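>> received
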Amino acid sequence: WLIAHSLNLETDPVRRGKWVREKLLAGTIPDVPITVDAVVPEDHHKTLRQRLDMKTRENYCWNCHKKMNPLGVAFEVYDDFGRYRTQERLEHPDSLIKEAPRERGLHIDGRPVYKTLPVNAKGYLDGTGDKALDGEVNDAIDLAERLAKSTRVRQSIIRHAFRYFMGRNEVLSDSKTMIDADQAYINSDGSFDAVIVSLLTSDSFIYRKAVRK
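>> returned
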């Protein structure tokens, strides 16, 4: 997931935050207006977060980015390969400290050495529906622990499971199926297998509505 939600050469806090907002917190983010220049400015003396803040803190951008950035930056403790880090490498010739050896092979010690800056992964969680969970988060681990305790997140996952196995969006008549699947998850102490069994034995799965001619 961390690699899939990264760019070719660096992380992508916006896309990571958008995924959390839409898939786990059941929020919605509008598409980027075609009139907006969404390119993050290059500055090889600043971290990606610092450059992103410079680009998105204007009111016009922040109306949407405030729903994504504070969630996505919590994952900055993981680089674009999903490796844990506390320092961000400034990969630019001006920041080069030591070149990579010619006979470096595949070992990590064979990589060039660049100057680094400390990673700031502090973010902010809101929209869980629980004031005890909302608030500043230290990093992705803290964020994940809070999301795991959220009723809204749990129900959002149940909804996505329903859509996957049924091949369609839910309608009002599926309410009992959704409630039963949620209760199965709770009663089984968090077993996703129990959710699958509940969904695949439900009336929503077994029966199909008659098509009116």
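>> The chain has a mean pLDDT of 91.
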